[in-house]
Specification:
This protein has a single domain, classed as PRC-barrel domain (SH3 type barrels, Roll). Strands 5-6-1-2-3-4-7 form a seven-stranded mixed sheet. The radius of gyration is 15 Å and the shape is globular. Helices cover about 25% and strands about 35% of the residues. It contains four helices and seven strands, in the order H-E-E-E-H-E-E-E-H-H-E. A hairpin with a 2-residue loop joins strand 5 and strand 6. With about 110 residues, the chain is of the alpha+beta class. About 15% of the residues are buried. The longest helix is centred in the C-terminal third of the chain and has 14 residues. The N and C termini lie far apart (about 40 Å).
């Protein structure tokens, strides 16, 4: 069985999508900790997120579903976009389990 090896420099500028097909942005860099990839710095190109002041995201490597010409990431990252809308609705209603268990993704300035 052949090992498929790619350089980190080859991953930059790869398009990043969520599981639902939502375009998020491009891979900008890798974050390495203890000689392992901790996560990926994603440059946000979505106009809705850009208007909210989100220029980039740090996505933990565990949330990457597929890496190739395009990347597929877990929809837990997508909850960043809709979390403010859901929190506004859920503050008036009973608490939503989905927003309570969402994964926090760091905002990059």
């Amino acid at each position: 069985m052949a090992l498929n090896v790619r350089k980190i420099s080859e991953t930059t500028r790869s398009k990043v999508y969520t599981e639902d097909g939502y375009f998020l942005g491009e891979v900008e860099d890798a974050i390495i900790s203890d000689n392992k990839i901790y996560g990926w710095k994603i440059k946000v190109l979505d106009p809705d997120l850009s208007r909210r002041g989100i220029k980039g995201l740090i996505v933990p490597h565990q949330l990457i579903k597929a890496m190739g010409q395009i990347w597929i990431i877990s929809k837990a990252v997508y909850s960043v976009k809709s979390s403010t809308e859901k929190e506004e609705k859920s503050s008036k209603e009973t608490p939503n389990i989905e927003t309570q268990n969402k994964i926090e993704v760091e905002k990059v300035e």
